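Proteins fold reproducibly. Next comes a concrete instance:

***
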Amino acid sequence: MLRTIWGDADRYVKTYWPDEFQRKLYLAGDGASTDEDGYFRIVGRIDDVLNVSGHRLGTMEIESALVAHKELVAEAAVVGRPDELTGEAVCAFVVLKRALPTGDEALKIAKELRDWVGKEIGPIAKPKDIRFGDNLPKTRSGKIMRRLLRAIAKGEEITQDVSTLENPAILEQLRQVR
């Protein structure tokens, strides 16, 4: 375990041993809850939370719901984007287990996935945008580049370095909203 942050010991204490826990518990940055049987449910990183109409939704929870559609979804990533009506909107990037859909077929699959998430979690968690791709923007080591997905969801120009991506061409494909 870390003992300090180089040159800033106070920041270490404030970040990892917060006052809310009376400095008795270490804050790792992951969120979880327990059910009535004592089982833990990992929600994901506490900094990966979307605020949709006042409801706090974990991105990992929505991703898990999408991937639970075993016939269609191979992989998914969820980020938030600003929305005038709800404050933040759910934007899902999905890799299907089949060929990339187009036209009406893409709209039909997107509706099916929205309804699926609504059934699994609740209507508030339905993705407003669903974007299909052959894969997700990952580094060569396999880490999903969520900062790039956030930029795409917001419609921003990507100015960050993308030289470490496995497939830089995927960024243009993921700009298409369904």
Observations:
- The beta strands are 30-34, 40-45, 49-52, 55-58, 73-83, 87-96, 129-132.
- The longest strand covers residues 73-83.
- Residues 103-120 form the longest helix (18 residues).
- The mean pLDDT is 89.
